[in-house]
């Protein structure tokens, strides 16, 4: 782009020099005048062609700059999305670890509840056994009391 601008300026300078020389000279030679006119036309054509190419290059550069800006924006968005997804993944992993810990805690609590229930069951069975023994003792005492009463009733009848 810089080279094209420089070349365009050089051509413009040459054209001006040619025009100045032409106007400052005496126009004795028509051949020289025709040659200068042809050179001037070629120079202007070259200058127009170079200006056109310069304009095309500038337009292409603008388009490529827009593409770069667009891609940079998309990249920034993707980086933010990636960071967000990475954070979500890390949180999910932490939650999963907490879930495993929670399952372990649930299992531990279930074991503790089972152990307490077994302990209560054993205590109730022991209490039941004691109560049965007491009941049997009470039954035995009741039977003895009944037998004593029967015996006393018999003795009373004998004395009467």
Automatic annotation (TrEMBL):
Q: Which domain of life is it from?
A: Eukaryota
Protein's UniProt name: Uncharacterized protein
- Tell me which stretches of the chain form a coiled coil: 40-67
Keywords, in A-Z order: Coiled coil
What InterPro entries does the record point to?
A: Spindly/BICDR_Dynein_Adapter
Alphabetized PANTHER family for the sequence? BICAUDAL D-RELATED PROTEIN HOMOLOG (PTHR32123:SF13), BICD FAMILY-LIKE CARGO ADAPTER (PTHR32123)
